[in-house]
Structures are given as C-alpha cells and as structure tokens.
Amino acid sequence: MNRRSLVALSVAAAIGAAATPSFAADAKAGRALAEKWCASCHVIGPDSQGAAADSAPTFVSIANRQGTTEAGVQTFLADPHKEAMKGIVLPRLEVADLAAYIVSLKEPEK
Ligand code: HEC
To answer: What is this structure's pTM?
Structure first.
C-alpha cells in the first residue's frame, strides 16, 4: 500500500468514528451536564456535597422517590423550573442524558 492510500484510509476511519453518534441517553454525559448547569442549586451526586440551595432536592433523593422515571424527569426538564434557569435552554438530547443520569442514581431497595 502506498503512503497516499494509507492517509486516505486513516482519514476515512476518523470520519467514521466521528459520525457514529450515540442516540441512546448517556448518563455519563448527563453527569457532566449536571455539574455544569445544576450543581449551583442541587447536590447532584452521592459523592458531591456542599453549596447547594436548601430548597432544591438532591438528585439522589429525586431518583429514590417512588414514581421517578426517566420520562417524568424529561417532561419536568422541558421547562426551566427556576428563575435562575430561565436563560438555560436544554436541547432534547441533553435533557435525555440528564434524566438518564438522575435515574441512574437510584439506590437498590434495602
Ligand atoms: C436556580 C437553582 C436551580 C438550578 C440551577 C436547577 N434547579 Fe432543579 N430545582 C430547584 C429547586 C428550588 C427545586 C425544587 C422546587 C421546584 O420544583 O421548583 C428543583 C427541583 C428539581 C427537580 C425535581 C422535580 C420534582 O419532581 O420535584 C428536578 C428533577 C430538577 N430540579 C432537575 C434539575 C436539573 C437537571 C438541573 C440542571 C439542568 C437543575 N434542576 C437546575 C432549583 C434549581
């Protein structure tokens, strides 16, 4: 194989990798989004603590509530729920990731 076709091959491979987005909700991406957009008010994970607003429920407590579902959280997040969030419009995929993340925090029944 000559050098030029090798380059062409690796470019094709790189494009192929970039063009394979995951449409499945991604809880890991949701966690990163939560750190960015939600942590100022919510305690967003079992391992995070601190300067969250008193009135905002922790994500773990939301996950463990009876009746919490991914679809329910998505519906809730379709509208900004606080004055401070009015400027934040979350794309549908990010809402899905966030919902997947929150629901993933559910603790096993004891
Ligand atoms: C400005 C503060 C603030 C920010 C930022 C914020 N929240 Fe909240 N959130 C609250 C408060 C306060 C409540 C409880 C009262 C209410 O529902 O409005 C709440 C409630 C919730 C609930 C629970 C709804 C229920 O069923 O009780 C969910 C889910 C939620 N927030 C998700 C998020 C996510 C995801 C983000 C980041 C994209 C976020 N919040 C960012 C303040 C905030």
So the answer is: 0.78
